[in-house]
Amino acid sequence: MRPAAPLAPELSPSRYIEKVSLATGEVLDAEILPRQLLVGSHRDHHPADIQARRFMSRLMKATGDEELVRRRMKKVRELGHQTSEVIARVIGQKDPEKVSRALFGLKRKEYFFRYKKPQRGKQEIEDRLAELSRRAAEKQAAAERPGKPWIRMLLTGGTGFIGQEILWQAAHDPEVAEVVVLIRPKEVRDRETGETRTLSPGERGETLLRRLWLDPTGTRDADENTRFRFLGGDVEQPDLGIAQEDLEELGGRLTHVVHCAASVAFDDPYETSFRANVTGNLNALRVSHALQSAPDSPFVAHLAVETSYIHGRQVKKPAREDEVVFPRNFYNNYYELTKAMASIETERFMLAEGLRVVQLCPAIVIGEYRTGNNRGDTKVVNAPVNVFGRAHAALKRRDGRWIDRSTGALLARLACVFPGDPSAQINLVPVDRVAAGILAAARRPRAVGRRVHLATDNRVTSEKIRQMAYEELGVRVHLADPTVHRTMTLPVLTRVLSGLKQERLASALHKLGTIFGGYSEWGQPIHEVANDVELLGLPAERPDSEHAFRMLCRHNRWVQDFGKVRDGDEISRREKLWAELIRDLEGRTGSHAGAVPAADFRRFLEEELDLESFERRSK
User: Fold this and answer.
1) Which residues contact 456 (CB under 8 A, 6 or more apart)?
2) ∠ CA 527-432-139 to the nearest 5 degrees?
3) Residues 130-175: tens digit of each pLDDT
4) pLDDT per residue as tens digits for the range 340-382
5) Quick one: which of 229, 243, 242 has its CA closest to 179?
């Protein structure tokens, strides 16, 4: 295999991370490669290691005691090292480490990674953050207009999943006066003529508002019509790609910059993730700093939307909101790694440059809490749910030749194997809770200088998700041991599927297994949650994760048809009708729709909705 080309200096992880000797504490002068920072580079490369992890997974399933399993893992490793030392003496090998690596795939850690951070005293940091919060309060007091809208924000990522929910909530927020949405022109191809044309930011914006049911000719009133502007730009370009005259005009108006744009593709290569998540973040920070520094600027604060998984594979202790340390168990993917690097840059701008910032860190974001509506999103948790749903439909097929039905049934059963430890805890947060937290941060100067996890305190396990998938979708998902699936089953499965000329399914399963397998292992991070209530004033009762997941399944099953409905206008129509149905159901039952049993929910839909046309039945 040809070695990868060296990274450009500006992309190097060494800008943010250093390697430190465990023996001496000295910083080692060695190149740091991106792959070295992922958990996949440090395990599963030896049969003995694979079997040890498999044993620990089974022990976790039997006991449910993570601390016990960690102690046993440590003892097993020490026993392996001791055995290697004995064998080395017997065979005359001077270096027991060679024996340990050859027999058990073990080696003693000689170094660890840590983030490069300027040494500042605790009191110095606290004083700095207090000053930033005080100045934000002064700026907000000057900008506020009692009884009138006063928040004027620049929003990046407005066409994304979270960004669309921010727009929807901003349209109904009496304190939001204006949202300037940064949006790129887009080339589209006419399906009938095959010709391509470029949609301007304004055209894309009008389409976006219409699909959010904020159409100027329909539900949106005159006030709402003036709230939104769509401005051409690109977060990966200096000044966010905004023309200089536009920047100057915005400088005298904006009170906030909300940086929501990011790449959420967990399988993107390092360079792609870096440019979207780090370079884009730096460009947004620089624009905010310029706005804040302008004379007589009304700028209050920069709101950085990050992820709670900047903490990586933490163990033992909850991931704290007030710090980012390099995780001893590394990161699952380059998305997490580059978002952590972006957070380090945000801290630097805050402490060194004096930029007023609130850092908001959502967990795994899913559809709206009451309805499951997700604006047509098919990524993250939606992806496996849609694959399971389509596989179940294939299992039920009765048409076609016997051999085709049999092959389809086999493929469907293979598609319903998912790597997951039953005890693994998944932190799901509905998108409306996230957007509410972001907008709350815009009016809470106390939050400036702080990091806030927008996460839940009632996580769901892989086993519970498996049960709910069966109840809601009729799909029998088999949870496979993550280590065995990752190292043995998945490679064989993808080769078999490719041999059956099912490359698309093979690719989908490989992608799901490698991307989501890391999040369904035991030992997932537990995130501190408190600042969302204390600093942002969000309701203390966080969304029920089980209800939220059930509504995700129901939405994807009937509204999206497991991802087959892709037209944006049709998704919008269906989601609006769906919201009306859910409101009627909750009025009838007096409870959250996610609490309604699956069979009762299905009967209600059949009474009220023509499932084929997705139209309301006439009374």
Assistant:
1) 363, 427, 428, 429, 529, 542, 543, 545
2) 85
3) 999 999 999 999 999 888 999 999 999 999 999 999 999 999 999 9
4) 999 999 999 999 999 999 999 999 999 999 999 999 998 888 9
5) 229
- Residue 66, both tokens: 């993570």
Q: Are 428 and 366 in contact (CB under 8 A)?
A: yes
Token output for 51: 């079997």
Per the CB < 8 A criterion, the answer to whether 53 and 483 are in contact is yes
Q: How far apart are CA 302 and CA 358, in angstroms?
A: 6
Alpha carbons 84 and 97: distance in angstroms, whole number: 8
Give pTM, 2 decimals.
Answer: 0.92
What's at 166, amino acid-wise? Answer: I
Domains within the chain, CATH numbers bracketed:
9-114 (no CATH), 121-366+428-454 (3.40.50.720), 382-427+458-616 (no CATH)
Q: Which residue, among 571, 569, 581, has the nearest Cα to 609 in the 3D structure?
A: 581
Output the CA torsion 513→516→521→527 (10° steps).
170
Q: If you write DSSP's letter for every residue of 253-266 in order, what string do you get?
A: T-SEEEE------T
Q: Are 414 and 497 in contact (CB under 8 A)?
A: yes
C-alpha–C-alpha distance, residues 334 and 270, integer Å = 6
| Residues 348 and 55 sit within 8 Å (Cβ to Cβ) | no
Sign of the C-alpha dihedral computed for residues 435, 546, 490 and 40 taken in this order: positive
Determine how many CB atoms are found less than 10 A away from the CB of residue 378. 15
pLDDT tens digits for 205-228?
A: 999 999 999 865 443 444 445 789
Q: For residue 24, with 0-12 CB atoms within 10 Å meaning exposed, 13-18 middle and 19 or more buried, which class applies?
A: exposed
Closest of 286, 289, 259 to residue 354, by C-alpha: 289
| DSSP calls for 333-393 | SHHHHHHHHHHHHHHHHHHTS---EEEEEE-EEES-TTT---TT--STTHHHHHHHHHHHH
Tokens encoding 100: 């340990």
Q: How far is CA 141 from CA 137, 146, 159, 438, in A?
A: 6, 10, 31, 19
Q: How far apart are CA 523 and CA 67, in angstroms?
A: 10
**CB 137, CB 445: distance < 8 Å:** yes
Region for residue 597 given its phi and psi (left: phi exceeds 0; alpha: psi -120 to 50; beta: otherwise)? beta
Contact 395, 409 (CB under 8 A): yes
Q: What is the mean pLDDT of residues 553-571?
A: 95
Computed from CA positions of residues 167, 170, 172, 176, in that sequence, does the dihedral angle turn out positive or negative?
A: negative
SS3 call for 265: coil
- Is-contact 217 261, C-beta < 8 A? no
Residue with tokens 């401005």: 231
**What DSSP designation does 145 have?**
B
**Nearest CA-CA partner of 301 in 151, 405, 83, 431:** 151
**Environment class of residue 504 by beta-carbon count within 10 Å: exposed (0-12), middle (13-18) or buried (19+)?**
exposed
Between the CA of residue 440 and those of 262, 310, 443, 533, what are the distances in Å? 21, 22, 6, 10
For every residue of 232-256, DSSP letters joined together read E--TTSGGGG--HHHHHHHHTT-SE
